[in-house]
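pasting for the record
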Amino acid sequence: MPAPIPPLLEDTEAVEQAARHAGFVSLEVTGDRRGTLTTRDGERRDVYLRVTPSEERLRTEVASIERVRRELGDAVPTPHVLGRLDLEGGTVLLESYVEGVDLASVLPVGPESPPLPPTYVLIPHDPPADLHNLVTDLGRVLSRLHRVRAERFGKLIGDDPNPHAHDAHAFLERELRFYVSGVAGRGWLSPGEAARAGRWAADRLGVVT
């Protein structure tokens, strides 16, 4: 079952018109937040279509990508911002598609699968033998990303209505409590193991659980 196309991208005629207005020849939506972009010089590129509900979110996304590329270079696979589409109801940021192994093709499928965003559809498959190595590589990438420092926590541009938006410790405390209770509730760890894991993570993150 393919993932649904976001409503903002369902009007293909409006998407095509916005792409031409942005200086491209055409844009074909090929799946959930994916498309094929044709540039003026005839080049066809796979793109990720990031739907952004506000101008502040879009500018924060662009600022984040630029900062990661500037500070980490090629150490972390990072997309290029190719342009934007201004549509009725929102804006779409066009990002170069980062090639690699799709998470849906390696995560175990079944009742014990970890929770994913509602639009993300797992592909039935046999988990690869090197799943542990893939997850380890993902952890290394996340570790590098977390070394990038910004002036504040949360949205880099504009105001954020969330009370914890610019308080990193409050955010980490809340998220840690959520995930520790989640792994215990699903039976992945015993209550005692989950508590010890929470204390271990809190000690290294410098937060209180």
